[in-house]
């Protein structure tokens, strides 16, 4: 067991001559007037900060009370850089890495967490089964990782799993076998075709031409391994952050909602016969709300017009009739208005359920009135755009959030939606879910109900993809008008709509043509949509404001210009505006000459044309995942990590991390449990702390900060330095000892002992966890010195190491290991 021997050096203050002796050598100190010192630090716990303040105030008062002394203590810190100040360097790194943000806000009960991990594994199995069921054509592998070398083109960049990034040169036959030739930075690699199928990955997405920063070298595999480890660490941090967010939901409990006796009567108002998938979705949501105490977070993935709204209506009924408020959030005013009208119609027989609407197009007075009624609880169901997420809206008793087409919201809105997910029930509706959502659903992090069965009366949309042709446009419109139908005409931008309207009026002078876009006044947009819904307007010329929610049974032809400028989900949603009746529907997708389009845009168009059947939204999202790459799915901050290892290997590592997240667990231990099996002599100079106070209080306060967490200890140390200057070597040893124990506690290390030939760290971590921590360590010599033997971490040495030098080594080593800590679940 470690002991701390505290030696107090002599300090003499002569009140007559006002001189001092035994000034510390570790800082530049002198007596001087007019010195201001910060007395409090808001980052420290109040108890610790106030102790600093009181001691400092007492000392200053004592000094100023002397008639002859006008002196206060001033320190001028020595600027220490690099290894001369390991504590300062470590503190800076903590701040730079934003370590605090990666910590769980509250520890989860280990038993509950283990149950959650078991549930994830079970859901992952079910998710994979759903994925197989969702593939409409055989069992093709839509998300392949390794590649067939026969499909490579000379000049393509590839990634060899063991060597790194190279450039494909070609395939040549030698005897009876074919070989793949890859150019690397220092030579040419020759790999058999069979072997390359197991070890080669694409660096880019198909048809991309992005160049890697450098080609790896055959003779330097260590650089490649570092790049792989960095990418793996980044992926695992991301997955663990997501997991901790979901684990916090375990701590949220709410009583199950009662199932009203009138629920069957409400459900019977649905005018269609539910499909088998719909019935399953109804059952899933009912079970989430009426049988579980943990808040629901369910994705309803169903193709356009497959009945997702009905699932939401039944969930809204259960929550609203129980006296809770419901938020229904839509990305556009058109979709929000349609939801509002549908909800008003279905709840017209329930006078106690009040429905309100909020959007940016309302006047200030209208917004204020709606917000006030929401705050006082008068409105039971609030429907609207992202205005519902504004700071001026205060919900009195919100219980359910329904989000339609989440992928269409901006980053800030998505963050606000995420903040709701740890406390209220959330139901997300999407025909083409953002791939991240889809992946989480399949991976067990989120519940999903898939509505893949089309209603009996639905028929597939016939899709035409070609370069723009005026004659084709006129012919398509004539055909639709001749059979008594209506037409959507969509362009990506407002600019050019007026010119297009002149063209249409010239071709169809006796046809009523309307125009809709987001810059129009609210009343004008609303009247236009109303006239189109009632059949007054025959051709609706618009931007993509119509892509979601419009249900016009008589509109069965849509023409989309410059379709390459839309995202895959947008194109799919726009095409879904037609084909909602039993008539055959047509979608005409026009683009400029292919030579003027990016490869990515061409891939999107090919995917949309390929997925033209009913119920292929799920499969389309898979394709979108492959086309867009995980950089855009998981955030732009991941793009650098993708560039390190290439898109396919990154995808494989992500898939592996999602499936093995249960292995990435560290069980931290309390600070008080950690024992150091060697003595450390630390000398705390009395003059360093304070001439008028007991230095032992500093020891107690340092220990108290360490018991809190590493972040609090860091702030304590910085506060200490601001007031008293850089500590002397003896005091530095004392602080390092506390840091070592705190870092060991975070890493789950309970004891560190020293033998004649080894340093042993006793821990409960698994070999897999140690291996990953080792890969995350940035310092080569420290990484190579550690081994995992007999369930413990060991570092062998050939000579006896002095205890002070051992402490310094431990500080450096544990600080290096701490780099990988944010990538672990802590419970």
TrEMBL record:
Q: Which GO terms describe its molecular function?
A: ATP binding; DNA binding; DNA helicase activity; hydrolase activity
Annotated Helicase C-terminal domain residues: 469-626
The protein depicted here goes by the name: Putative DEAD/DEAH box helicase
The scientific name of the source species is: Cupressus sempervirens
Q: Which segments does the entry list as coiled coil?
A: none
Organism superkingdom: Eukaryota
- One annotated GO biological process: DNA repair
SUPFAM superfamilies linked: CarD-like (SSF141259), P-loop containing nucleoside triphosphate hydrolases (SSF52540), TRCF domain-like (SSF143517)
> Where in the numbering of this chain does the Helicase ATP-binding domain appear?
289-451
Q: Where are the transmembrane segments?
A: none
**InterPro entries per UniProt:** CarD-like/TRCF_RID, CarD-like/TRCF_RID_sf, DEAD/DEAH_box_helicase_dom, Helicase_ATP-bd, Helicase_C-like, P-loop_NTPase, RecG/Mfd, TRCF-like_C_D7
Q: Name one Pfam family in it.
A: CarD_TRCF_RID
Q: Which UniProt keywords apply?
A: ATP-binding, DNA damage, DNA repair, DNA-binding, Helicase, Hydrolase, Nucleotide-binding
């Amino acid at each position: 067991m470690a002991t701390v021997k505290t030696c107090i050096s002599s300090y003499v203050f002569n009140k007559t001559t006002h001189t001092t002796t035994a000034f510390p050598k570790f800082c530049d100190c002198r007596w001087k007037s007019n010195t201001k010192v910060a007395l409090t630090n808001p980052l420290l716990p109040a108890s610790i900060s106030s102790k600093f303040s009181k001691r400092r105030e007492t000392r200053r008062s004592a000094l100023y009370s002397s008639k002859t002394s006008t002196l206060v203590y001033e320190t001028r810190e020595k600027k220490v850089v690099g290894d001369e100040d390991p504590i300062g360097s470590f503190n800076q790194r903590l701040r730079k890495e934003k370590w605090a943000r990666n910590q769980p806000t509250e520890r989860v009960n280990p038993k509950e967490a283990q149950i959650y991990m078991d549930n994830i594994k079970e859901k992952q199995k079910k998710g994979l089964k759903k994925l197989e069921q969702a593939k409409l054509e055989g069992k093709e592998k839509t998300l392949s990782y390794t590649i067939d070398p026969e499909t490579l083109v000379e000049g393509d960049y590839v990634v060899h799993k063991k060597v790194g990034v190279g450039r494909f040169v070609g395939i040549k036959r030698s005897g009876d076998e074919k070989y793949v030739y890859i150019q690397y930075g220092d030579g040419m690699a020759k790999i058999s075709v069979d072997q390359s199928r197991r070890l080669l990955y694409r660096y880019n997405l198909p048809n991309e031409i992005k160049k890697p920063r450098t080609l790896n070298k055959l003779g330097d595999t260590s650089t490649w391994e570092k790049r792989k480890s960095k990418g793996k660490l980044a992926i695992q941090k991301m997955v663990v952050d997501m997991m901790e967010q979901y684990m916090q939901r375990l701590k949220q409990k709410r009583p199950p909602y009662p199932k009203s006796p009138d629920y069957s009567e409400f459900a019977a108002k649905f005018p269609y016969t539910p499909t088998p998938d719909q019935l399953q979705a109804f059952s899933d949501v009912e079970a989430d709300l009426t049988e579980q105490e943990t808040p629901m977070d369910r994705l309803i993935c169903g193709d356009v017009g497959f009945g997702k709204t009905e699932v939401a209506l039944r969930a809204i009924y259960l929550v609203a009739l129980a006296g809770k408020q419901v938020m229904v959030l839509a990305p556009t005013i058109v979709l929000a208005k349609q939801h509002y009208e549908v909800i008003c119609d279905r709840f017209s027989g329930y006078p106690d359920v009040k429905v309100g609407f909020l959007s940016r197009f309302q006047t200030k007075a209208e917004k204020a009135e709606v917000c006030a009624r929401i705050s006082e609880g008068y409105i039971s169901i609030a429907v609207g755009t992202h205005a519902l997420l504004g700071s001026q809206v205060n919900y009195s008793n919100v219980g359910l959030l329904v989000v339609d087409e989440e992928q269409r919201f901006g980053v800030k809105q998505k963050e606000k939606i995420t903040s709701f997910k740890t406390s209220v029930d959330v139901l997300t509706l999407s025909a083409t879910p953002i791939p991240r959502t889809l992946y989480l659903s399949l991976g067990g992090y989120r519940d999903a109900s898939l509505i893949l069965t089309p209603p009996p009366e639905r028929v597939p949309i016939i899709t035409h993809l070609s370069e723009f042709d005026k004659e084709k446009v006129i012919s398509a419109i004539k055909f639709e008008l001749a059979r008594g139908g209506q037409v959507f005409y969509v362009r990506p931008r407002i600019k050019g709509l007026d010119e297009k309207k002149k063209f249409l009026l010239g071709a169809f002078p006796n046809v009523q043509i309307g125009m809709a876009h987001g810059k129009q006044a609210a009343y004008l947009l609303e009247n236009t949509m109303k006239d189109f819904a009632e059949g007054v307007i025959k051709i609706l010329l618009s931007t993509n404001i119509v892509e979601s929610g419009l249900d016009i049974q008589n509109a069965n032809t849509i023409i989309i210009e410059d379709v390459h400028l839309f995202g895959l989900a947008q194109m799919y949603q726009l095409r879904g505006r037609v084909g909602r009746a039993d008539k055959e529907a047509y979608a005409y997708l026009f683009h400029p000459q292919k030579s003027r389009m990016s490869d990515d845009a061409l891939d999107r168009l090919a995917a949309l044309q390929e997925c033209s059947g009913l119920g292929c939204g799920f499969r389309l999202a898979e394709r979108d995942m492959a086309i867009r790459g995980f950089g855009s799915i998981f955030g732009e901050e991941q793009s650098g990590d993708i560039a390190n290892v290439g898109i396919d290997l990154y995808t494989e590592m992500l898939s592996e991390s999602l499936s093995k997240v249960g292995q990435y667990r560290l069980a931290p231990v309390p600070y008080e449990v950690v024992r150091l099996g060697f003595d450390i002599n630390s000398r705390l100079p009395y003059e360093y702390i304070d001439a008028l106070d007991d230095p032992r209080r500093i020891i107690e306060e340092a220990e108290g900060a360490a018991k809190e967490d590493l972040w609090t200890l860091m702030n304590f140390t910085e506060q200490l330095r601001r007031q008293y200057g850089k500590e002397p070597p003896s005091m530095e040893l004392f602080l390092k000892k506390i840091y070592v124990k705190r870092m060991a506690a975070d890493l789950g290390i309970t004891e560190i002992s020293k033998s004649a030939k080894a340093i042993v760290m006793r821990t409960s971590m698994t070999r897999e966890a140690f291996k990953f921590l080792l890969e995350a360590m940035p310092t080569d010599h420290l990484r190579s010195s550690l081994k995992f033997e007999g369930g413990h971490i060991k570092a062998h040495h050939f000579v006896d190491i002095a205890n002070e030098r051992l402490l310094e080594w431990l500080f450096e080593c544990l600080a290096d290991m701490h780099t990988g800590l944010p990538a672990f679940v802590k419970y």
